[in-house]
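Predict structure. Chain length: 478.
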Amino acid sequence: MQLRRTKIVATLGPSTDTETMIEKIITEGVDVVRLNFSHGTVADQQSRVEMVRKICKKLNTEVAILADLQGPKIRIACFKDKKIQLKEGTEFCLDANLAKDLGNQNSVGIDYDELPDDVKQGDILLLDDGRLVFKVKNVIDRKIICEVIVGGFLSNNKGINRLGGGLSAKALTDKDKEDLITAVKLNVDYIAISFPRSAKDIEEAKKLIAAAGGTQEVIAKIERAEAVMALDEIINASSGAMVARGDLGVEIGDAELPRVQKEIIHRCRSLDKIVITATQMMESMIENSIPTRAEVFDVANAVIDGTDAVMLSAETATGKHPEKVVAAMARICLGAEKQKSTQISGHRVECRFKRADEAIAMATMYTANHLNISGILALTESGSTPLWMSRIRSGIPIFALCRFDKVRRKMKLFRGVYPLPFDVTKIDRHQINYTAIEMVATLGFIKTGELVILTKGDQMGVVGGANAMKILEVGKVV
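Prediction complete.
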């Protein structure tokens, strides 16, 4: 049985707001659902969480829930006539003093009052995800006088970025802090922080989560130029990172984006963190029923580079056929995973380990990749051992046997890890090996006569206690 190792994150929205559609996308392969707090009300998000959990219970499965905070969107205000057309070479003003709905052919208000303090003559501003390009000529009385370098239509509330980054807006807005508390109350599994500039932004979010009584894992969205410069410290402060290619591509330039994406994936795996690749992966399927060849290659390349997950945004949230795009992404992932390069790893071969359970995880993967092993069974309390295992490229499935549903949901985002419910505290310690192997075999993942590796601790039910690995033959376990 071929199991897909790369996980799929699907954004919920109007197109998925029925139990029927939620069931379809989960059945087609969604591992994690994303709540986009840039859109919708608290009631919308609560309804989606309830539907997901209801359908998971019906299907006897689990998916993780990721709450994605909006962050400090720096935008223009509104035009009297909703949109204008700007020509190259003309002058246009971003006016912090102008009323929010009085934009015209010559100027428009901005919703970030500090923008005039952040820019200077010669700066390049990119609007509407870089579709329009302005060059700052001068800043006078809270007015940013610009020359239009690349023109086009400009409509209400479009975003503003500065080429090279450097805008001072804080990562966590008042809205984000309220949404973070909501996410904790909804008992989501991950919270994504938008536009962090340093580890301090991540630490602030973690403190707010703890103060709200939560234990959610934090994902850092890498979408500022400054975040690229502080990549390792941000990744180390987080549980993982998201390659948020929209704003990131605008700030660093599209030519730099492929290199930086590969670097983020590489650093996350090297630092034993998870990584999600996002934005426009199957964009054409918002309307179309099949992806473009370029989109197929985009998803496949992220898989080959070692991403834990690939993410769908508008494709599922507002697209015409969410279930088809999930099915297509699953097919592409499986195809890419057939390449030998996705199964060979020299990761950490020369490294020293800090903990016994970390050493067990690395020894297991080295052995599995050099012996005819059909599956790895990791008895885990916290998910740490399967996470370390999943950093090693391998085609061998890692079955994470865990008694805690929240930890199992967390592990749904780990590449190549398949969480299964298994309560070691309710099984005779002398029957643990047999019972674990029998359960996985009954599900059809391993067969009699095949070799598996089982990892566990001498003291069952203790976090960080894994200190043993055993090579066992299915059907001959005593």
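Summary: Residues 199 and 359 are 28 Å apart (CA to CA).
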